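Check my protein:
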Amino acid sequence: MLIVWHSRTGAAEQAAQCACDAAMAIRAELNDTHTIRLKRAADVTAQDMLDAQAYLFCAPENLASLAGEMKECFDRLYYPLLHRIEGRLFSVIITAGSDGQGALTQVRRICQGWRLNERVPGLILNMQSDTEAAILAPKTLSNEQRRQAEEIGATLFALL
């Protein structure tokens, strides 16, 4: 399982880490041998994607779209992976100031092109940020948001 993340203010990174921790706990509970990797979007390679059987993409929404570094990751890897990862599982966690639907839709459309399987529905974590200061400020996920991210990570791993 590969968890790919990009974060500007910390929320998406925290979500990715919570998901990773929960997936590792399930792996230990099941005495499973599948690998779990947590990797920054800028560092993900086509080989990283080919080596994984499931993907969790964690990123912020900026201006109603997927944040740049995550979008660049998809741009860079889309064609090298086309027709090579079909049928694999994926989910997504979007951190957003107030909406998040634009970025969630964007990731789903990219993954649809790859013909990935969203067995674990994506999630938007609304950070309630609607002023410049609030948008740019470092973020901390609530306990409920952490629990939701953990649930996605654990469920996605358990489906392997």
